[in-house]
Design brief:
Elements (H helix, E strand, L loop, with lengths): L2 H43 L4 H29 L1 H18 L6 H29 L2 H24 L10 H19 L15 H7 L1 H27 L4 H26 L4 H20 L6 H15 L1 H11 L7 H30 L3 H23 L32 H6 L1
Length: 426
C-alpha cells in the first residue's frame, strides 16, 4: 500500500508529460494547417503560374524526405530538445521571409528548407511520445496524437480567413504559433529517447515484400502532393472566397479522420487489397465529380470533398498495414519507415507533374489526374488479388491509422516485447 502514492505520482507525471507534448504538437499543427493553405492562395494571387506553385509544393516534399533521412543523425548529435528548438525556430524565421520577398524561386527554397525542418520537428515530438507511452496506453496515445493533429490542422486551415491573405499578418501568425509551440515542448519533463529509427529507401526490398503496399504508397503520395499543393488553388479558381476555401480543405480532412477507423476495421476481416481497391474506385468517382463541379452550389463541393477525403486518406494506412502483414515483427518499423519515404518521393513528383497540366487544361485537371492515379491503383490491386495469396491469418497485424509525419510514429504501434529499437540498433 505504501507504494500506491509513488505509482500514482509516476502515472500523473507520465500523463502530464504526454499532455504537454500533445499540446505542443497541436500548436505546431495549427501553424502547419494555416501555412499549407495560405501559401498556394497567396501564390495564386501574386500571379505565380501553376508550374511555379507545383515546384514549391514539390520542394516541400523533397525537403521532407531529406529531413526523414538525415534527421535521426542530427537529433542524435545535438539532443532532442535542442533539435526541436533549433528547427522550430528556423521554421518561424523562414515563414516571416515569405511576405518580405515575394518571388517564386525564393518561396521554393523556403518551402524546401521548411520541409526538412518540419520533418525533424515531427520526428522529435513522436520520439518523445514513444518514450513516455507504456504498452498499456501506447495505442491510446497514437490515436490521440492523430485526432489532435487532424483537428489542429483543420483549425489552422480555418484561420486563413482571419486576415487579408495579401498582408503579412497570417504569415506572422504562423511564425507566432510555431514559436509558442517551443514553450510546452521545451519545458516538458521528459526523458531523452535513446534512438530514432533510421528510414532507408530500399525500393526492391519493399516492392518484393508487398507490391500492392509499395505501389499504393507511391500513388497516394503523388495524389496527396498534388492535392495539398493545388487544392486551395482549385477552390480559388472556382470562385470560392477564402473562408470557403478553408472549409473545402477542412472537409477533406474531416472525411479522412472519420472513415479511417471503420475502413481499417473492415480490412482486418477481409483481404486488405479488396478494401484498397474499393477505396481507390470510390476516389475515382469523387475525383471526377469534383473535376466538373462548379459553384453556385458550394455545399455540394464541401460534401464531395468530405467523401473524397474519407475514401482517399485511409489508403495510405491500409497499404502500410498490408505490407506489415508480410513483414517479420522486428522489421515492421523499418518497413513502415521505408514506405513513408516512398510516399514522400511520390508526393514530390505529384505537384511538379501537375503544374504544367493546370497551366494547359485548367484547375479541373487536378482531380482528373487524381482519378487516373486511383484507377491505376484499383486495377493493380485487382491484378494482385488474382495473382497472389492473402496474408496468413497468424501473420496479419491489426490495422492502425498512422499520420504521414515521420518514422518515429511507427514505434508507437509496437510492443516492447518486439524490441524494435534494439533490433534497429544492431
Amino acid at each position: 500500500m505504501m507504494l500506491l502514492p509513488l505509482v500514482r505520482g509516476a502515472m500523473n507525471s507520465q500523463y502530464r508529460s504526454i499532455g504537454t507534448i500533445l499540446l505542443g504538437s497541436a500548436i505546431v499543427f495549427l501553424g502547419y494547417g494555416l501555412m499549407v493553405t495560405l501559401v498556394p492562395i497567396r501564390a495564386q494571387m501574386e500571379g505565380f503560374g501553376s508550374s511555379a506553385i507545383g515546384l514549391m509544393g514539390s520542394a516541400y516534399f523533397v525537403g521532407f524526405v531529406i529531413g526523414c533521412i538525415v534527421g535521426p543523425k542530427v537529433v542524435q548529435a545535438v539532443g532532442h530538445t535542442r533539435a526541436f528548438a533549433g528547427f522550430a525556430a528556423l521554421v518561424a524565421a523562414l515563414t516571416l521571409i515569405f511576405p518580405m520577398v515575394v518571388d517564386p524561386w525564393t518561396w521554393t527554397i523556403l518551402r524546401g528548407i521548411s520541409g526538412i525542418c518540419l520533418a525533424v520537428v515531427y520526428m522529435v515530438i513522436e520520439s518523445w511520445l514513444n518514450e513516455q507511452a507504456t504498452n498499456r496506453i501506447r495505442g491510446t496515445v497514437l490515436s490521440l496524437y492523430i485526432i489532435i493533429g487532424n483537428l489542429a490542422t483543420i483549425g489552422g486551415q480555418q484561420m486563413v480567413a482571419l486576415s487579408d491573405t495579401r498582408s503579412y499578418v497570417l504569415f506572422s501568425l504562423v511564425a507566432i504559433l510555431v514559436a509558442i509551440s517551443l514553450v510546452p515542448v521545451s519545458l516538458a519533463p521528459v526523458r531523452e529517447p535513446d534512438q530514432i529509427p533510421t528510414a532507408k529507401l530500399r525500393f526492391a526490398r519493399l516492392y518484393n515484400l508487398s507490391p500492392t503496399g509499395f505501389v499504393g504508397c507511391v500513388l497516394v503520395g503523388v495524389a496527396d502532393g498534388a492535392f495539398w499543393t493545388f487544392g486551395p488553388v482549385f477552390a480559388q479558381t472556382r470562385g470560392l472566397p477564402v473562408s470557403e476555401i478553408a472549409l473545402f480543405m477542412g472537409a477533406f480532412m474531416v472525411g479522412g479522420t472519420i472513415l479511417q477507423w471503420p475502413l481499417g476495421w473492415l480490412s482486418d476481416r477481409i483481404d486488405r487489397r479488396i478494401v484498397i481497391g474499393l477505396c481507390a474506385t470510390a476516389t475515382i468517382g469523387t475525383g471526377l465529380a469534383l473535376a466538373f463541379w462548379y459553384p453556385p452550389v458550394p455545399w455540394m463541393g464541401f460534401a464531395l470533398a468530405l467523401v473524397h477525403g474519407g475514401v482517399m486518406t485511409p489508403i495510405y494506412a491500409l497499404c502500410i498495414a498490408h505490407s506489415n502483414d508480410f513483414a517479420p515483427n522486428e522489421e515492421m518499423v523499418e518497413v513502415s519507415s521505408g514506405l513513408l519515404l516512398i510516399y514522400g518521393v511520390g508526393a514530390a513528383l505529384g505537384p511538379v507533374a501537375l503544374g504544367p497540366l493546370m497551366d494547359g487544361f485548367g484547375a479541373g485537371s487536378l482531380f482528373v489526374m487524381v482519378a487516373i492515379i486511383f484507377a491505376s491503383l484499383a486495377l493493380f490491386s485487382l491484378y494482385r488479388i488474382t495473382k497472389h495469396r492473402v496474408a496468413a491469418a497468424e501473420t496479419r497485424t491489426p490495422f492502425a491509422p498512422v499520420p504521414k509525419s515521420s518514422q518515429s510514429v511507427y514505434a508507437l504501434e509496437t510492443d516492447d516485447e518486439e524490441e524494435v529499437f534494439t533490433e534497429l540498433g544492431k
